[in-house]
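$ run holo --ligand "zinc ion" --emit tokens
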Amino acid sequence: MHKASCHCGKVALELDGDLSQANECNCSHCSRKGYLLVFLPRETVTFRSPPEDLPAYRFNRHVINHHFCPDCGCAPFSMGKGPDGREMVAVNLRCVEGIDLEAVKRVPVDGRSF
Ligand SMILES: [Zn+2]
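-- output --
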């Protein structure tokens, strides 16, 4: 199990999954936030408090909720549906505790061109 959190600790989650590689997207939103995202099924992530209670930023087609902490501003995860309709959580590896980011393989995603 891995723990992820915002800076102040208000947002905290536990997750189980392969964190050896992450998507690094070059779109206007991801590049500004520096997201390194791993996509996990909703049921493999445990939230300390309901994610629906957190504020979320939406843009473009408004289908993904980019949640953030209302106090410290960190964005540990986003939520949306996969192509098959399954609820997915995109965890920002930058907010995972104790992870060696240098060892994470970065998979470039050309979101800017979409
Ligand atoms: Zn916070």
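-- notes --
Residues 6-8, 10-11, 69, 71-72, 74 surround zinc ion (CB under 6 Å).
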